[in-house]
Design goal:
This protein is of the alpha/beta class. It has seven helices and ten strands. The radius of gyration is 17 Å and the shape is globular. The model has no long low-confidence stretch (mean pLDDT about 90).
Length: about 230
């Protein structure tokens, strides 16, 4: 595995104030090699999603330092973080978050609106990515014309259309049946093998076992980093 790191988190903390202070992250230190596949597990409220939001530059840390692909996230302006998210990071969520009135290729091309690609170029890139994730025959379908698994594949295509080096997924199989969830995880495995770094939050042990390692969290802290092997399954 490469000695380059996708992520270096050094004692990062995040506290929210909702009445009493909630220490969502409490001194988390973590290094993820480039091209690695990591699952994050823990009970509700353990800090899993907060950690993913930090890695995705969707929230800011209170203490510590966070470096992603050699960039100190804490030194970035809001504009720089937005540009970094659009070029370096991809996001996949449990709820898909597809625009209901847009066709599959239009949903996938949304991240390209921030670039300079012409409309024809955006459609071509979106269609290539939809084909890559196995729904190339659904490019003109609306989300309500797709199954849950197909909608998640469209969401993954959208996350990948800018060719991010780090893919972040929060419970991506949570709304899917076991068979469909397994097919989605096989796709994540392929992306990992091709060199994309993947960080995935899950409650399901069988999903976590697709990864190379499992980061266990409790009360905003990492309690164990469990190695699973080169492929994990």
């Amino acid at each position: 595995m490469s000695t380059e790191h996708s992520v270096i988190a050094d004692s990062i903390s995040r506290t929210y104030y909702v009445g009493e202070p909630v220490h969502a992250l409490d001194g988390v230190t973590l290094e993820l090699p480039a091209g690695s596949f990591t699952a994050v597990m823990g009970p509700s409220g353990s800090g899993k999603s907060t950690l993913l939001n930090m890695l995705g530059c969707l929230d800011t840390i209170d203490e510590g330092t966070l470096t992603i692909h050699g960039r100190d996230v804490g030194d970035m302006s809001e504009r720089e973080r937005a540009m970094f998210r659009s070029t370096e990071l991809g996001f996949v969520f449990q709820a898909f978050y597809l625009m209901p009135r847009l066709r599959a290729w239009e949903n996938v091309s949304l991240p390209l609106l921030f670039g300079e690609a012409p409309t024809d170029g955006r459609r071509a890139r979106a269609e290539r990515m939809l084909d890559r994730v196995g729904v190339g025959d659904r490019i003109d379908h609306l989300p309500n014309e797709l199954s849950g698994g197909q909608r998640q594949r469209v969401a993954i295509a959208r996350a990948l259309v800018n060719e991010p080096r780090l893919l972040l997924a929060d419970e991506p199989t949570g709304n899917l049946d076991t068979k469909t969830g397994a097919s989605i995880m096989e796709l994540f495995t392929e992306l990992h093998v091709e060199g994309t770094s993947v960080v995935l939050v899950t409650h399901e042990r069988y999903i976590a076992e697709y990864a190379e390692q499992v980061v266990h969290m409790v009360d905003g802290r990492i309690t164990e980093i469990e190695p699973l092997g080169e492929v994990g399954r």
